[in-house]
């Protein structure tokens, strides 16, 4: 396949309303069903080996799928950002929950996969990556659809430790519209927090209602 025949797709630009909100105000969005690579776990993300393993495995498999799609289907796209669903038992979505005992945090880490990634390609890539790399996190990965529907979101710029007012703003936005918080606290990490200075972090903070 020639370079001229290759189709480049900017998924972040295409989905800017979901992956590039303003930091100036909370907005309401309708989040459609999308397919994700997902891994569940529990514990402090700053110290948990399982968390580290999950991040590494998700990125490795996502890049393997990207290169397979490029080679087999002629579509070149950028790997989407890491996302996290967060909760503790019985206290979903509150700022108190997020700031509580980190060992009690339950998380689902995930990376969205575009329409060109199907079940058969996922299974082939999973086997291929498993053969090439010893990644413990691969054992927990699944590939499935996820739909949030109506949600409130805003961009947070800065350290995770300073998300409090941002999260409270989302909660207030939902309350003003007479909605009730449902589902899980959702964060989308637009830059790699393993390599980015805390003050430069950009995180989409979202919650369905």
Quaternary organisation: single chain
Distance between the termini: 46 Å
Shape: globular
For the largest beta-sheet, the strand count, sense and barrel status come to: 8 strands, antiparallel
Q: Spans of 5+ residues with little confidence (pLDDT < 50)?
A: none
Beta fraction of the residues?
25-35%
Total number of helices: 6
What radius of gyration results from the CA coordinates? 17 Å
Sum up the structure in keywords:
6 helices; 8-stranded antiparallel beta sheet; 209 residues; alpha+beta; 10 strands
Set down the secondary structure blueprint.
Blueprint: E1 7-9, H1 11-14, H2 16-19, E2 27-31, E3 34-42, H3 49-73, E4 75-77, E5 82-87, H4 95-98, E6 106-113, H5 119-132, E7 142-146, E8 149-157, H6 164-176, E9 185-189, E10 202-208
Parallel strand pairs: 1-4
Antiparallel strand pairs: 2-8, 3-6, 3-7, 5-6, 5-9, 8-10, 9-10
Helix pairs in contact: 3-5
């Amino acid at each position: 396949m020639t370079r001229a025949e290759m189709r480049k797709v900017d998924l972040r630009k295409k989905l800017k309303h979901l992956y590039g909100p303003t930091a100036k105000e909370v907005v309401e969005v309708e989040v459609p069903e999308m397919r994700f690579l997902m891994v569940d776990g529990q514990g402090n993300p700053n110290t948990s080996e399982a968390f580290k393993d999950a991040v590494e495995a998700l990125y490795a498999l996502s890049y393997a799928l990207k290169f397979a799609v490029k080679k087999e289907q002629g579509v070149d796209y950028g790997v989407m950002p890491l996302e996290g669903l967060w909760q503790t038992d019985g206290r979903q979505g509150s700022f108190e929950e997020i700031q509580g005992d980190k060992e009690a945090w339950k998380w689902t880490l995930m990376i969205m996969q575009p329409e060109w990634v199907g079940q058969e390609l996922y299974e082939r890539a999973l086997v291929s990556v498993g053969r090439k790399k010893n990644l413990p996190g691969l054992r927990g990965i699944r590939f499935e659809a996820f739909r949030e529907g109506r949600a409130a979101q805003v961009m947070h710029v800065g350290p995770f430790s300073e998300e409090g007012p941002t999260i409270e703003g989302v909660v207030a936005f939902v309350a003003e519209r007479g909605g009730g918080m449902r589902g899980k606290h959702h964060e989308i990490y637009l830059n790699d927090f393993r390599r980015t200075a805390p003050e430069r972090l950009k995180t989409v903070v979202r919650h369905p209602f």
